[in-house]
Amino acid sequence: MLTYLIRRLFAVAVMLVVIILAVFCIFFLIPKWTGTDPATMFVGKQADKASVEAVREKLGLADPVLVQLLEFFKGIFVGREYSAGGDVTNCSAPCFGYSFRTEQEIWPVLTDRLPVTLALALGAAVVWLIIGLTAGVVSALKRGSIWDRISMTAALAGVSLPIYFTGLVSLALFSYQLGLVSNKYTPFAESPGEWFSGMILPWVTLAFLFGAMYARLTRATMLEVMGEDYIRTARAKGLTEPVVIRRHAMRSALTPVITLLGVDLGALMGGAILTETTFSIPGLGQAVLKAISDKDLPLILGVTLITATAVVVANLIVDLLYGLIDPRVRLG
Q: Is pTM beyond 0.70 here?
């Protein structure tokens, strides 16, 4: 297990380096190759010639590519200085960029928004796992029954209906009409009760989409697993059906579910843009949408880095969970 862990941590470190290189190429090199001046992309909408030249000098865009790359890496791990003549701007580590449009570092913005997005993603994940796994397992065990048809029809509706539609309908019905839950986001520190009330609809709306996919995946996997030889062997040994399902079938069927969960949670760390916009939740998704509108490229760059890192870390956790979930997996 220790050898496997070391090997995976090394692979994660290599992957993070590759991600940083890819992000650097996307935001600094590719614009040059396509004839776009990167300085104009970083200065924002209101860009006069003097501002563009100042940003070009501060970012060192006239330096050799290798020097720019080293400064980019240096900023992430130890911080960096953006200097143009006598004007020096400090960006402390980890420096995920500096917005010259808003005159602020990107990392504090990310850390301020990330807990909101994290709460949205984790809360929705709990709901969609409960709904998806339950519906998928029962549908597989009662294949062809009325429950199977109802749950799979609901799953198809969940996959087909866009979040902004289900979000607005749920707001109109449960918040504005019935008044059962809050229709606005309240920070947890201000009022835990109001925070929970305001998060219920976003959790359920996001879970409706993902829970539908997990239900279909669980059903298909369970149907395949229930036909395996080791399941028949377990039954032949005299084990009861609940024990066969819980100890043998479920552990094998959870492997693809956990894989998908790692990818989904990692991706959601970049913000569930439609959900956050529909319910006015001040998370990373809403920040990215505003950054795109304002052409605030440093913030987009920072969210890209943190999202990619979250996906890599989530997949590392998934790999470590395999050995605990599926007895057929051996970590050496």
A: yes
